[in-house]
Amino acid sequence: MEGLLIVLIPMFAGYLIKIKRQILLRHINRVSMLLLYIILLLMGISLGQLDNLAQQLPIIGISALTFACFTQGFNLIGLLSYDKLSPQPLKRAAQQTGSRLKLLFDSFKLCAMVALGFVVGYFSKGILFLPFGTSTYVLIALIFLVGIQLRNNGISLREVFFNSRGIYTGLIMVATSLLGGMVAALVLNLPVAQGLALASGLGWYSLSSVVLNDAWGPVFGSIAFVNDLSREILSLFLIPFLMPNYRSAAVGISGATALDCTLPVIQRSGGMEVVPLAISFGFVTNILPPLLLVFFTALPL
């Protein structure tokens, strides 16, 4: 319960704040990105200071790849089936998506922060000690700013509840992610609760990596980060391809990133007609990860 309040209170507190000055919103966006980099740096430091590190890295890579394959694969199966059963192709031709190289470079920078923290942690082992709960405090600040961004990106409760396709897309995406997490856990011989928790980030790597790092250590935090970041990278390629005929699959594969880094790709690929779907879907996939992560990490293994 305490973990749930730590996540939800700052988000809803931020959502209550209405900001009219665009320059202030731009500063908030910059601070949010800075806090994200700090979180990833801290996670890398924790990973670098692990005992028996050489034995842990293959586990991280294989586990993250397994979870990515099953969760995102099940997402596509479920969402493509929904689009087939309830087709809603674009009324207008897709627009040019622009260069995805810059977006991929942004993802590379996130990975680079973890790598930098890893190097710092590895060479400062026994010298540098992080205060307990440091990453959690940074996460609270980041979630507070995310709440402000949600409110000031024009996301109203009316818009969320009246876009049924966005809600259904979100629920299908969450259900298939959890199903994929259970299958991945069975394949890797992990407790089902851990599989469900690793699948619950839905692409929100800054949240999942910290929550799982605090719950089960930096190995699980790193698996969550790589798994959720891979969703963002994959979606940059799939969204333009899927959008003309499979709008729910195109939006749904992006997960929680539908409200931030992949929203411009969604809008450029599908135009304004898909923005309400993306907003309602993104709201669902940004509200549920804190609830799911706290719930599944509290279950006995």
TrEMBL record:
GO molecular function, one term: L-lysine efflux transmembrane transporter activity
GO cellular component term, pick one: plasma membrane
Transmembrane segments: 28-47, 59-82, 103-123, 129-148, 168-190, 202-226, 233-254, 274-299
Entry keyword set: Membrane, Transmembrane, Transmembrane helix
Keyword Membrane: yes
Keyword Repressor: no
Superkingdom of the organism of origin: Bacteria
Protein name, UniProt field: Uncharacterized membrane protein YbjE (DUF340 family)
Upper lineage: Bacteria, Pseudomonadati, Pseudomonadota, Gammaproteobacteria, Pasteurellales
